[in-house]
Amino acid sequence: MVVSTLKAEIKVLQAQLDRDSLQLTACQQRIIELEENVKNKDVCVTELKEKLEDVKISQEDEIKSIEDKYQAVMKINQGLEGKLLQLYSQVDELRRPKQTKGSSVSPLHEYIDSSNNRNRTESDPSAMETAPKQTEQTVYKFHSVPANDTFNPSHTEIHNDIPHSVGARELDGASLVSKESGIEP
């Protein structure tokens, strides 16, 4: 009886050992599969990091190029706008002595061109009678010139190698280029 009980107990333990060894084999297979998945994902992550770094470098280069172009355009605009301010001050200086001497005809005056509603500068004295009188001083706002009072047109760079047609632009419906300069907008 003891022997049969021991044999039955050995049989139960043997069956449990077989089940446990099958579970161990299945778990080892699952561990191997998971380790392979981790390796594959590590390789993918490494490749993605390399691609991300390449894209980041190319984007930084592109942004730097765009910023350089922007700075160059701003520098050119500031130079052109500074030159325009100098020209406007020269025009004002030319107008001022003629008006203080009592002369009724100014060498430069503006009239409105009805075909495209832009002010034009003309040197024809006979057209002065039809030109509207300006009682207010015109204030021009340039976007690339600082808004504070630190801007000085004498510190502006003048680029003589830039074609004059680059500086032709409209501001508040008024042409900033005179016909006498030979520049057509």
From TrEMBL:
<keyword id="KW-0175">Coiled coil</keyword>
<dbReference type="GO" id="GO:0033596">
    <property type="term" value="C:TSC1-TSC2 complex"/>
</dbReference>
<dbReference type="GO" id="GO:0032007">
    <property type="term" value="P:negative regulation of TOR signaling"/>
</dbReference>
<feature type="compositionally biased region" description="Basic and acidic residues">
    <location>
        <begin position="156"/>
        <end position="172"/>
    </location>
</feature>
<feature type="coiled-coil region">
    <location>
        <begin position="3"/>
        <end position="69"/>
    </location>
</feature>
<dbReference type="GO" id="GO:0051726">
    <property type="term" value="P:regulation of cell cycle"/>
</dbReference>
<protein>
    <submittedName>
        <fullName>Uncharacterized protein</fullName>
    </submittedName>
</protein>
<dbReference type="InterPro" id="IPR007483">
    <property type="entry name" value="Hamartin"/>
</dbReference>
<feature type="region of interest" description="Disordered">
    <location>
        <begin position="96"/>
        <end position="185"/>
    </location>
</feature>
